[in-house]
Design a protein that fits this description.
It is a single chain. The protein has 237 residues and is an alpha+beta fold. The strands form 3 sheets. Strands 8, 9, 10, 11, 12 and 13 form a 6-stranded antiparallel beta sheet that branches. It has a 5-stranded antiparallel beta sheet with strand order 1-2-3-7-6.
Length: 237
């Protein structure tokens, strides 16, 4: 497998083509950003930690029957993934009130949500990833009804699997976002799953162990990511 030209560069990852038209190289950089790119910083080891973390999670999900774009980890900062046609809709599940939900509805941070909420957001940085619904997604051709149903089903299956995994490490999976794409006609999980795209709290102290440490200037961002990894059995040199 030969890595070739850069296809796309995002806030924290870059994507490269390969000599196989069905496969891409996903490169995790040390860049961190928040508030639609208004806050940016380079954090040493972030790319390595997120790449190894993501590889572990994706393999766990595959073992549990969740189809993903992940093929294999290539190095500390790169992984091989399937080339998908991305669906520009983010799926968000919230188990505990935090972040945008608290701001929008004025509810108390930390209350348990039963059943968990499910939300859709249009993946559009220029518009600030606005919240949408199934009707809008269908009308504007962002996703079909069948794709939306499959995305929702897979998102809740992921919730069941990962809530249990993080609970074994004495952590609460507060909320998270997932992105999906189509590969050879099937809807599969794409992008990444790391502390960059979810909220994780210590189950006893409710200490934040995720990207909120960067957003809120709490410090110890990568140390928190590494602590999460250690608790669920990920070894990072």
């Amino acid at each position: 497998m030969e890595k070739r030209q850069e296809l796309y560069t995002g806030k924290a990852k870059s994507v490269y083509t390969t000599d196989d038209p069905d496969l891409l190289v996903l490169h995790f950089r040390d860049d961190a950003s928040a508030f639609d790119g208004k806050k940016k910083e380079s954090l040493a080891r972030k790319g390595k930690v997120n790449n190894i973390f993501n590889a572990f999670i994706m393999q766990r999900l595959e073992e549990a029957g969740i189809p993903t774009h992940f093929e294999k980890q290539l190095s500390d900062t790169e992984s091989l993934v399937k080339k998908m046609e991305m669906i520009p809709v983010e799926c968000v599940v919230r188990n505990i009130a935090a972040g945008g939900l608290v701001k929008r509805l004025g509810v108390e941070e930390g209350i348990s949500l039963n059943p968990p909420t499910f939300e859709l957001f249009l993946k559009n940085d220029e518009k600030g990833d606005p919240m949408i619904n199934e009707s809008l997604a269908e009308t504007f051709g962002w996703a079909t009804p069948e794709q939306l149903a499959e995305m929702k089903s897979l998102t809740f299956k992921v919730n069941h699997i990962l809530k249990q995994l993080f609970a074994e490490g004495d952590m609460l999976l507060v909320d998270y976002k997932l992105e999906f794409g189509v590969f050879k006609g099937d809807v599969i999980l794409g992008d990444e799953f790391s502390p960059d795209g979810c909220r994780l709290w210590d189950a006893h102290t409710r200490e934040k162990l995720d990207k909120d440490r960067f957003r809120q200037g709490l410090g110890g961002v990568i140390e928190a990511y590494e602590e999460v990894a250690r608790r669920i059995g990920i070894h990072i040199d």
